[in-house]
Design a protein that fits this description.
alpha+beta, six-stranded mixed β-sheet, globular
Length: 251
């Protein structure tokens, strides 16, 4: 960890402690990038009020923060929110609802929460889900397809964390299906994914397969679902941590 990153990390952790002490809750705000949507989540609700933490995706961060602050206020007053129930009053003219966040997603989205709870993800969390303009939720057939990737649903698909469809066509080589580990991944600026076993794959060995086939071949690929457009990821072997960089950093 660089000195600058370490300093930022220390400041963030102190802010969490200060806000929970002062307000009973801290909100972690994560801005979106060129691929992933913005999201906001609470830290401290469970410790202070025995209520699951709350996470929300895809709206403006100040809007999400306002909504979650209202949830925090009501939780402090004793109200308890549960999955599968419609709740009006948080978004003008629209109801929201909650789903339970699967533990498999905690490391991906609730990192500082894990730090606060003694380096553990043993705390409950609910995802606040908002509908499209026709009051449909993301799991409903007619939900606005343009909004689907703004709001991943964290109670399902733990075997496939990518934001794209399972049948998205991606590039790889036959070596991956012959048992060689995938060590180099590219998420092109045009949205194409490439998964290779070597730095310079032979085009004669190219294959075009469904993204789901890649995740079934190697479930650890799920951990780089967040790779931005125009970025690369690589690792020394299948047991190594992934490294990331923008553009052609691997060359």
């Amino acid at each position: 960890m660089s000195h600058e990153h370490a300093q930022h990390d220390a400041e963030a952790k102190q802010a969490i402690l200060d806000n929970i002490e002062k307000y009973g809750c801290h909100l972690a705000l994560l801005e979106g990038d060129n691929y992933l949507p913005p999201f906001v989540y609470s830290i401290g609700l469970f410790q202070k009020f025995g209520h699951p933490e709350i996470i929300c995706f895809g709206l403006k961060t100040d809007v999400m923060a306002t909504i979650i602050n209202e949830v925090c206020r009501l939780a402090k007053a004793g109200e308890r929110f549960v999955p599968g129930k419609l709740y009006p009053g948080f978004l003008q003219d629209y109801s929201i609802q909650f789903v339970e966040v699967a533990k498999e997603y905690y490391p991906n989205y609730l990192g500082y929460g894990g730090w606060f709870y003694n380096m553990s993800f043993e705390f409950p969390a609910l995802q606040l889900i908002w509908p499209d303009k026709d009051h449909r939720f993301p799991w409903e057939t007619e939900f606005n397809p343009d909004w689907k990737r703004r709001q991943p649903i964290l109670d399902r698909n733990i075997d496939f964390k990518f934001y794209e469809e399972r049948n998205l066509g991606v590039y790889t080589t036959k070596q991956a299906f012959a048992g060689e580990p995938i060590l180099f991944v590219y998420h092109n600026e045009n949205g194409d994914w490439q998964f290779h076993t070597s730095l310079e794959p032979n085009l004669d060995d190219a294959m075009f397969v469904c993204l789901e086939e890649i995740t079934k071949l190697d479930p650890s690929i799920n951990e780089i679902f967040h790779l931005q457009y125009g970025w690369s990821a690589w690792r020394d072997n299948i047991d190594s941590e992934w490294e990331y960089a923008e553009d052609e950093a691997m060359e």
